[in-house]
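Lab manual, section 2.4: Encoding a predicted structure.

Procedure: take the sequence of the chain (118 residues), apply the prediction step described in section 2.3, and record the output as structure tokens. A sample record is shown.
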Amino acid sequence: MTEIPMASGGSEGTRPREVTIAGYLILLEAITGLIAAGITYYIWEDELSLLGIVLAIVAFWLYTMILKQDYSAWMITVIFNILAVFLYATGSNWAGVGLSLICFIYLISPNVKVHFTK
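Recorded output:
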């Protein structure tokens, strides 16, 4: 297991590579969700797109919490990805469905989940 130094350089130590990858996946999901929801709202002014924008903003917050290895953030992110799959499928955003499934599967894998235990 390769460990990556934390950005703060403080006494927190190092962050496992799996946690960093999980954070980057959540960040990618937040960016793509924000872009997709923004474009959809701009074109069709759909209220469901506004929900997508709110969820993308929540994903940015979850990204920072995942990097801190917060267990509650991990649990919220797992639930968030399940909801995102249904939201993206409702909006026929199949790329978003795929990305959410990848994030979900990665987060629940045992070698990632072990870093978020209480």
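Check your result against the sample. Helices lie at 17-44, 47-67, 71-90, 94-108, 110-113.
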